[in-house]
Amino acid sequence: MTLNVKPLWTIEDVSEYLGVPVKTLYGWRLKKVGPGAVRIGKHLRYDPDEVVAWVQSRRLAS
């Protein structure tokens, strides 16, 4: 059985994609703004589709 699932992004991946520092992403998480992340053990992971959807929602809001 093969799963057709995209790998989750690390905080560094999201930082590079958005062009913002990792520290900014941590700050957004504390303020509950920015793309949603899930904690897996001690690591944050992001669904790439959710990150892209968040960017799209920001475009529509401005």
From TrEMBL:
InterPro entries: DNA-bd_dom_put_sf, HTH_17, WH-like_DNA-bd_sf. Pfam families: HTH_17. Residues 10-59 form the Helix-turn-helix domain. This is Helix-turn-helix domain-containing protein. It comes from Kribbella sancticallisti.
